[in-house]
UniProtKB/TrEMBL annotation:
InterPro entries: Cis-CaaD-like, Tautomerase/MIF_sf. It comes from Nonomuraea mesophila. This is 4-oxalocrotonate tautomerase. Pfam families: Tautomerase_3. It comes from the Bacteria. Gene3D superfamilies: Macrophage Migration Inhibitory Factor.
Amino acid sequence: MPLWHVHHPAGAYTERQKRAFAEEATDFYARFGLPRFYVVTLFHEIPRSSFFVGGRPADDTVRVVIEHIARHAEDPGLRERMSEALGRLIARHTLDLGLHCEYHIDETPRDLWMIDGLRPPPTDSDAEALWARENRPVPYDLPAT
C-alpha cells in the first residue's frame, strides 16, 4: 500500500485540488498493476502557528511522506527513476502552485501489512490481479508449492 501523508498549510488546497492530487497518485501506482484501493492519500491541514520550517512559521510549504509497503524498489536505478517520477507528480500539485515542497519515501516490510485481516497477495500473482479487478480485498488461496 502506498500511504501518502500530505502535510500542508491551511487553505492551500481546495477539495477539487485534493481529489486531483489523490487521483494522480493512485493512477501512478495503478499503471504498475497495484489495486487502486491500495493507495491511500491523507491531507493534513496544518495551521500557520503549527507549521515551522527552519524554526520559522511557514505558510507556503508542503511536506509529503510516502510509505511504500506493496512494492519496494531494490535496484538503485529504479529507486532514482521512481523518486524522480514521483517528484514530477508532486511538483504539479506544489511547485506549480507556488508552494515549496519536500518529500521522502519510507519502505515498510511487506510482512507487517494486513488489510481486513488478510495478508495481501504476492506481487504479480493471480490473487493480486483479482484484488485489482475487484478493487477490494477478497479471500484467496495460494497455489500449492
